[in-house]
Design brief:
- Helix 3 links the parallel strand 2 and strand 3.
- This protein has two domains: 247 residues, Glycosidases (TIM Barrel, Alpha-Beta Barrel), CATH 3.20.20; 247 residues, Galactose-binding domain-like (Jelly Rolls, Sandwich).
- The longest helix has 19 residues.
- The two termini are 35 Å apart.
- Helix 2 runs parallel beside helix 3 and helix 5 packs parallel to helix 7.
- The protein is built from ten helices and 24 strands.
- With 552 residues, the chain is of the alpha/beta class.
- The strands form four sheets. It has an eight-stranded parallel β-barrel with strand order 1-2-3-20-21-22-23-24, surrounded by seven helices.
């Protein structure tokens, strides 16, 4: 008898293991501002389709970190969004607490960007102003590719799919041509020069680019690879079609590096591409006080090079600020105005240390996790969201935090970067639960996943993020989105006791991605759902997706 019962239980268990589940959380991601009635109608159409095909919620990204800055007509549209979701029996899940992409917070105060230390930049006093004085601290040479031996420019290490071109150039008599970058054997085209720099200085990079019949679009740029494996310059402008010569400008902080490899060319996205790209007049120059941040956690120090005297802002020199603060490298940093009656003499050489912000890739500016004003803004938005929408579920946008623990506000706390990330996440979770103790709280997975971004030397984040998952509440539900590592990612969180939801991406042409996620979810204890996630506003597959996940 006992044997028959055991066999029956084994059969039932095997059946359940292979069963295709219909998960309770079946979402669609929608992004966009509420600035027009057309956007509202688009939302209504998506909601109707989602409801008709068995979905249960809309995760909505619509500027919730600056809700208090929205005009009255946008608030009225947001109320209609709530009514639409209620009409179609969909949960409305606001996406908030943006950290890696901090535009919402920065719309309140740009100085809340995370800052990187620039140390001992030289400024020389003349005529009542201290102006930045570059020290020729970068060793980059032959940026015009004028010196070369056949197809290979002097001073560069071997790359791939590049050649000196003496018939097409921006200036001088030569440029570097990149072609053949779409080949299967080597889909990039680049050339490398190892240069020396001064640690903790700002460097601006510029180059001129010309394209011919580039299809499809691809990513070009300059990477600054340090000896410890970090890319200090994650910047990749998009190149496409045919264009005449145009200048591209960016920059980086050398951090603790004294040398690195400057890798110039086209990179990710080149596979299968065709066409030609020329680059010329590559320049590396030191700059100072560019995008300087002014908040309590990013102090400025001005000291005399000769006497080491530290001068006082507001007494010896006027308040320092970058009036063009935009986190790009397309302008000059400010001069320092010397105040009459102060202690700074004419001709003095000043060493200035400060923190500055920067843009990663095209438009990503992370925010400081430790400055009290940041959290105060988030708290206010959470209260407004709760009062206006009363959602049952919230999404925290703590993802792709590519700068962290580098400003003084963060460092003075004495936390590891893993603890810092976990502490900020817990603080955000508690802010929501203080408003609604029964609220369900979700977060993107990457900053807590060792298979993804929770690791050492992650972009410009200082310190190791490994172990961040140990510092967040188990009540938070994790939205996994790294498809290629979906099985180890889901298993990682499942073993820790977290519930998981899959963020399936739909900027393709079929349902292979969600099918792969569903297979992995079926093998994951604690899996509760899946989301249709598009960054390009492609919803043509939404009906098929809904049927797939709701009619298994």
């Amino acid at each position: 008898m006992k044997k028959r019962v055991l066999i029956s239980l084994l059969i039932v268990g095997a059946a359940l293991w292979g069963q295709k589940k219909v998960y309770p959380e079946r979402w669609v991601y929608v992004s966009g501002e509420l600035g027009t009635d057309r956007a509202l109608e688009r939302f209504r159409d998506i909601a109707r389709t989602a409801s008709e095909h068995g979905l249960t919620a809309i995760m909505y990204s619509a500027g919730f970190d600056r809700l208090d800055l929205q005009p009255p007509e946008n608030i009225a549209r947001l109320k209609e969004v709530k009514a639409i979701c209620e009409r179609y029996h969909l949960d409305l899940v606001p996406s908030m607490f943006g950290t890696g992409y901090g535009g919402g917070i920065l719309s309140h105060d740009k100085n809340l960007a995370e800052g990187v230390l620039a140390k001992d930049a030289l400024f020389v006093v003349e005529g009542g102003q201290a102006r930045f004085s570059p020290e020729n601290s970068a060793s980059f040479i032959n940026g015009g590719f004028e010196e070369h031996q056949g197809d290979r420019p002097d001073g560069y290490l071997p790359g791939a799919n590049t050649a000196v071109d003496t018939t097409v150039f921006h200036s001088g008599k030569a440029s570097l041509r990149l072609e053949g970058f779409g080949s299967k054997s080597n889909d990039s085209a680049h050339i490398i020069q190892q240069i020396t720099v001064r640690p903790y200085r700002q460097y601006r990079l510029s180059l001129w680019v010309k394209t011919e019949d580039v299809k499809p679009s691809l990513l070009g740029g300059i990477h600054a690879q340090s000896d410890d494996g970090r890319n200090l310059h994650p910047w990749e402008p998009r190149l496409s079609g045919t264009s005449d010569w145009r200048q591209l400008v960016s920059g980086f902080n050398s951090s603790s590096a004294a040398k690195f490899k400057l890798d110039i060319g086209v990179f990710e996205g080149a596979k299968g591409a065709t066409g030609k790209v020329w680059i010329d007049d590559v320049k590396v120059e030191e700059v100072g006080l560019l995008n300087v941040l002014r908040r309590p956690g990013t102090p400025v120090t001005v000291r005399d090079e000769k006497t080491a005297a530290v001068y006082e802002e507001g007494k010896d020199y006027a308040a320092i600020a970058d009036p063009e603060l935009n986190f790009h490298w397309d302008h000059e940093g400010p001069a320092i105005r010397i105040l009459p009656g102060g202690k700074i003499p004419e001709g003095a050489r000043l060493r200035v240390s400060y923190y500055h912000g920067t843009t990663i890739y095209q438009d990503q500016v992370p925010v400081c996790l430790s400055e009290p004003k940041t959290q105060a803004i988030w708290d206010k938005q959470a209260r407004l969201i709760h009062d206006l929408l009363a959602p049952r579920k919230y999404m925290m946008a703590m993802d792709e935090l590519r700068m962290a623990n580098s400003c003084e506000a963060c460092k003075r706390r004495g936390l590891s970067t893993a603890e810092l990330v976990g502490n900020a996440t817990t603080r955000q979770f508690n802010a929501i639960r203080a408003l609604d103790r029964k609220a369900e709280v979700y977060v993107w997975s990457d900053m807590y996943d060792p298979n993804h971004n929770a690791r050492n030397r992650y972009y410009l984040a200082e310190g190791d993020i490994t172990g961040s998952w140990n510092y967040i509440p188990k009540e938070i539900k994790i939205v996994c989105w790294y498809y290629e590592r979906r099985q180890p990612s889901l298993a990682h969180f499942s073993k820790l006791g977290f519930q998981t939801l899959a963020g399936a991406y739909y900027d393709g042409a079929n349902l292979d991605n969600p099918k792969g996620w569903l297979e992995a979810l079926d093998q994951t204890p604690g899996a509760i759902g899946i989301m249709y996630t598009t960054w390009e506003n492609k919803y043509s597959l939404l009906p098929d997706f809904g049927d797939l996940v709701s009619k298994r």
